[in-house]
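Troubleshooting: if your tokenizer reports a length mismatch, compare your output against this known-good record of 477 residues.
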Amino acid sequence: MDLGRVQQLDEYRWTVPLAPGETRAPVLLYGSAPLLASMDDKVLEQAVNVAKLPGLVKASMTMPDAHWGYGFPIGGVAAFDPAAGGIVSAGGVGFDISCGVRCLRSDLSLTDIAPHLELLANALFHAIPAGVGEEGRLKLAPAQIDEVLADGAHWALRHGYGVPEDLDYVEENGRMAGAVPANVSELAKKRQRGEMGTLGSGNHYLEVQVVDRIHDAETAAAFGLREGQILVSIHCGSRGLGHQIGTEYLVTLAKAASRLGIALPDRELACAPIRSPEGQQYLGAMNAGINVALANRQILAHLTREVFARVLPGSRLETLFDVSHNTCKPERHRVDGRDALLYVHRKGATRAFGPGHPSLPERYRAVGQPVIIGGSMGTGSYVLAGTAESEQEAFSSASHGAGRAMSRHQALKQWRGRELIDELAGRGILIRTASLRGAAEEAPGAYKDVDLVAEATERAGLARRVAFLRPKVCVKG
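Known-good structure output:
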């Protein structure tokens, strides 16, 4: 990004000055100068476009891990007021509805699993279906798909996947309200019949990690974290169903925008007023898509526990937290001294409620919500905690990952999958994947420096660092 086009507000906040005669809401970019410089200029263009949409509250925002996406930037946050004609946009949610991370904490240390690492990696790879269009053992009838769309992780629990305590530590307690299965097409439902309990491809992964260092001892204790402890992170979403919902409603919302005379600065920003029939229809379908993702991660957590029980009998995996990062949710926030119901789009951004928020489980209420910044398979990830300051800054939002620094096409020109996997094995990181091409596309060098992203997230007040996790095993599609 050309830093000459932005204005620095302080070390970790930037804006875009209005051009002569230009009318739009403000733009707020979070990140350090090196991080912003590493972003594509398209991020700036997309953030400015979002600032022109009706009913935007405060500003169009990007997190420190931002990169360009479809319509909205990935790492983008935008809140809209339905009472002021605010809109909902499928491009503002993304195609992988409710993509997110389920983080499990174990009672194991690295010394416990080190002798079994190869066996564990192979067993996880065979138990967790991964890859484009890959299906699992579970095949659902149409009526069962509708039950998943309505009940989310509660459906999975009723069918023997997981334990009731899991749901205390899942956003929305595992079931998103407002889901309307009838708003999801039969084609979308058909795509999901064999994909429950599967990981997918691209940047989705299941990773066995070790807590490498603690940044905040008090919060780490509340989260049940200690140095040397083994965690498992599962990153995936709503699979083919979510993609189909996004694809179909882009057309519906584009027609609505045209019918209602909404001037779109970019066709990829297709949207409709939240209170319009089309807006309500999309929200019902998207909420159903969120439930599919929550159920999917609940099933994957169960499959992971089965593997650990076979390889490391007696081990225990508890849900630390499950948080989504591709959603639009109705939330109450303080704006100019008043309480307002807003629809907050977080596309590649994580909800990050601070201490005291009533929706948090009692165990975390004093320290804030766990926030996961997933890094690359060769570097590491962070656990952070939401802050009170983030509510004022960014509607309680934070970074969700390291963020790509280059496209998959560019990555393929620089890395070979086999060489990369061998190099990581030499560093003690075991990769299991069905696609060498996919491994090259996800090379660690294709991502931003996760340490810089986590530091910028903390310095900007969006969330504070709690622990750094180093990868040991990564299963990818």
